[in-house]
Amino acid sequence: VLIVEKNSKPGGYCTSFEKDGFRFDSCVHSLGSLRENGALRKIFFDLELDKKIKIIRLNPFDTIIVPGHTIRIMSSLKDTINEFHINFPKEIENIKNFFNFITKTDFLTLYIKLKNKTFKELLDEYIFEEKVKAILTIPLGNIGLPSKAASALVSAILYREFIFDGGYYPLGGMQRFSDGITEVFKEHGGKLICSTKIKKILLKNKKVLGVISEDENIFSSKYIVSNCDIRQTFLNLIGRDNVPYKYLKLLNRMTPSVSAFLVYIGVNKNLNKIFKEKGNIWYASSYKVENVYNNILQGGIDSSSTCILITSPSFHDSNLAPENKQSLTLIFNSSFKNKKYWENKKIILSNSILKRAEEIIEDLSKYIQFKDVATPLTLYKYTLNYKGAAYGWAAIPSQIDKTLFPQKTEIEGLFLASHWCTRGAGQSGVSTVACIGKDTAQIILKEKI
Ligand SMILES: Cc1cc2nc3c(=O)[nH]c(=O)nc-3n(C[C@H](O)[C@H](O)[C@H](O)COP(=O)(O)OP(=O)(O)OC[C@H]3O[C@@H](n4cnc5c(N)ncnc54)[C@H](O)[C@@H]3O)c2cc1C
After folding, report:
1. Which CATH code fits 259-383?
2. Residue 356 Cα to ligand 1 middle (Å)
């Protein structure tokens, strides 16, 4: 098996980079589904990644800070419920029922009940208080959608697999995860070629023959798995003329997920002394989270940084920053804009998000030693995901059915992997794409036999 990657290292969104002695995760900041019987755990141990990667678990994983309330998502559901109890005693039975439904219902029942619903409809069934609804909507930032648009099924799976079973972190940074998988791949005879961009998938009589890179190298193969952006796969690599009409129609109709704006900062101070919260912080300065997420989905920008995510891996892995220093990443979901827009707005928006972060981490900007920004355009350039999409297709009810973009395509020998495959639930994220990749491999192996 040969993997051809256009970047200098494997991982796409799941990579890390170093600057000034600080190590930052490019995008992915946490892994989910690693509990006993969790989907990623199975793959992790099957590949014996435990021999290469040490995983820690943050507790709390996420802390949600909103005006008047701080709620920690703990590694035990009981402790998380207790956090809600302290904050919303009157609503606690509803919250418990809601969490029980999400965590204890078997998948088939969840699927039948939730497939055509939005997360808002689900919330309305269980939760009465508007503030609690807003708080429970905040983690939908992980799929970049307001509750009235988000698929209830995908959101419930997100809660189950990434919120209640999240917070796993590979010591050394996210690159360790991608590198560990690459090492196993090579040990089993796989070959990886980096810094090589594929420009075409070669076809003859509607069958794949191989791929050709931009530097004109041809790699022949009976089976091609495209793990890159789906529009690129069909419209550029295959070419519009060779694409079955069904796919063209879907590509035209379907909406990609939103992108993200990230500010990476290295600070020359040990923030442990001035900031007591650990793990990832969701900070919303108002309860209008639904409006903020909806505005982004409609093409707007959260220019006043109303709802931000702060990740701080060096708090739990001291090797990620020089002694007595810390690395932080400030993130908000964002729509895609052109180069000129980001040239004009990049600094303004990074100052806005920093100012917002200072409301909970006092004087943060005083300690900045290093700062860099990634816009949706940066994400696009790095991964070629359409419009810098962070999570494949937007996880709305009409876009999750597995018949839309299953792994086996109508072009003989061409298979899909990546967060652009639809599989009925769990649209994006590392554990989902790992499962999709494994399924794709199994489909091909069955065909070969
Ligand atoms: C800001 C942000 C934060 C996130 N946080 C999390 C998180 O904490 N946890 C989580 O589970 N998920 C998170 N996600 C989602 C997650 O990153 C993605 O769903 C997942 O990584 C997608 O993996 P992928 O392999 O499908 O695609 P990608 O990561 O996009 O990888 C595609 C790869 O294909 C390569 N490629 C593209 N075109 C070509 C070509 N023509 N030739 C050769 N190579 C090519 C790219 O260089 C890239 O390496 C986050 C996403 C973003 C943007």
Report:
1. 3.30.519
2. 27
Q: Which helix (H) or strand (E) holds 174?
A: helix 174-187
167 pLDDT more than 90: yes
What's the confidence (pLDDT) of residue 272?
Answer: 84
Please give the Cα distance from 386 to 231 (Å, whole number): 7
Taking the centre of ligand 1 as the mean of its atom positions, its distance from the CA of residue 28, in whole angstroms, is: 8
Stretch 119-136: mean pLDDT:
98
Question: What are the sequence ranges of the domains in the chain?
Answer: 259-383
The type of residue at 262 is L
Query: CA-CA distance, 163 to 63, in Å (whole number)?
Result: 11
Give yes or no for a contact between 260 and 335, defined as CB atoms under 8 angstroms apart.
no
For ligand 1, atom 19: residue with the closest CA? 429
Q: pLDDT (tens digit, 9 = 90+) per residue, 101-123?
A: 999 999 999 999 999 999 999 99
Any residues with CB less than 8 A from the CB of 213 and at least 6 apart, and which?
Answer: 4, 196, 197, 198, 199, 219
Nearest to 256 by CA among 311, 336, 186: 336
For residue 255, the 8-state DSSP code is P
pLDDT (tens digit per residue) in 283-341: 999 999 999 999 999 999 999 999 999 999 999 999 999 999 999 999 999 999 999 99
Question: Look-up: residue for tokens 């816009």?
Answer: 375
Q: Whose CA is nearest to atom 36 of ligand 1?
A: 228
